[in-house]
């Protein structure tokens, strides 16, 4: 099994030039890094999941699937995978997104425990780059949170909600689906939008909903769906 040498850094604020050597080329990247101390350690790691975590810590906003892709491309060589990732990202202009409004059906109502419901947002491409096909929105919380807060048939913890190609300054509504937790009380979720390559961009959206056994949001949304279906049949 291929092994990777991982260098772990913590820095005071200054500019660091990192040279990543791969089989094909030498890539030089410059970063401004802010932390408290400077340490250096070298670890030999063979576990794939650990390599993925290390690559995610190197690449800001790099999700699990994209980190896996670059590691597989580099035959699990962390240095080469990081070089490929930064080289790829340097060639892509980063898009932009602005949150406009929460247009959820039943907004402000409470939701019953362990219930599937939807949130809807109006967002805008306020940048100069068209969003690519495959752009998606997903929960920003860590995987442990996603797997523990609720379950329902067909629900996936890392579910993606895709957004169609969107030119600059155009707007679009995005509807996401999730499951309320079993415990009553306030329930907060944070949503973010990502490029097809798993890079987060734009603003995040935070929504807090009250979970209560007497909640009415699911009923309101179900009635809204029925009315929409009736209007389509007219």
Structure description:
The protein has 234 residues and is of the alpha+beta class. 24% of the residues are buried. The strands form four sheets. Strands 8-7-10-11 form a four-stranded antiparallel β-sheet, with no helix packed on it. Strands 5-6-9 form a three-stranded antiparallel β-sheet, covered by helices on one side. It is flat. Helix 1 (48-58) packs across helix 2 and helix 2 (64-73) packs across helix 3. Strand 2 and strand 3 form a beta hairpin. The protein is built from five helices and eleven strands.
Topology (SSEs and partners):
Elements lengths: L3 E7 L3 E8 L4 E8 L5 E7 L2 H11 L5 H10 L4 H13 L7 E5 L13 E9 L11 E4 L3 H6 L12 E2 L8 E9 L5 E10 L5 E12 L5 H17 L1
Antiparallel strand pairs: 1-4, 2-3, 5-6, 6-9, 7-8, 7-10, 10-11
Helix pairs in contact: 1-2, 2-3
Can I get a quick summary?
The protein is of the alpha+beta class.
For the secondary structure, the number of strands is 11
**What helical percentage do the residues reach?**
10-25%
Percent in strands: 25-35%
Order of SSEs, N→C? EEEEHHHEEEHEEEEH
Radius of gyration: 21 Å
Q: Return residue spans where pLDDT drops below 50 for at least 5 consecutive residues.
A: 1-44, 150-154
What structural category do the secondary elements indicate?
alpha+beta
Number of helices: 5
Largest sheet entry: 4 strands, antiparallel
N-end to C-end Cα span: 63 Å
Strand order of the largest sheet: 8-7-10-11
Q: What coarse outline follows from CA principal-axis ratios?
A: flat
């Amino acid at each position: 099994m291929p092994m990777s040498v991982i260098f772990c850094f913590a820095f005071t604020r200054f500019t660091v030039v990192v040279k990543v050597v791969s089989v094909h080329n030498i890539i030089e990247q410059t970063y401004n890094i802010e932390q408290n101390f400077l340490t250096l350690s070298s670890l030999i790691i063979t576990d794939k999941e650990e390599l993925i975590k290390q690559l995610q810590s190197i690449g800001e906003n790099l999700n699990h699937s994209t980190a896996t892709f670059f590691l597989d491309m580099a035959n699990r060589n962390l240095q080469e995978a990081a070089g490929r990732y930064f080289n790829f990202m340097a060639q892509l202009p980063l898009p932009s997104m602005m949150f406009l409004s929460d247009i959820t059906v039943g907004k402000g109502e409470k939701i019953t425990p362990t219930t599937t419901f939807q949130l809807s947002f109006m967002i805008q491409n306020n940048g100069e780059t068209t969003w690519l096909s495959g752009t998606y929105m997903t929960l920003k919380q860590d995987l442990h949170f996603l797997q523990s807060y609720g379950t329902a048939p067909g629900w996936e913890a890392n579910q993606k909600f895709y957004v169609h190609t969107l030119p600059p300054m155009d707007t679009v509504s995005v509807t996401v689906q999730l499951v309320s937790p079993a415990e009553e009380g306030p329930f907060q979720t944070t949503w973010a939008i990502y490029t097809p390559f798993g890079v987060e961009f734009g603003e995040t959206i935070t929504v807090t909903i009250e979970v209560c056994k007497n909640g009415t949001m699911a009923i309101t949304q179900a009635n809204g769906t029925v009315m929409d279906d009736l209007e389509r049949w007219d």
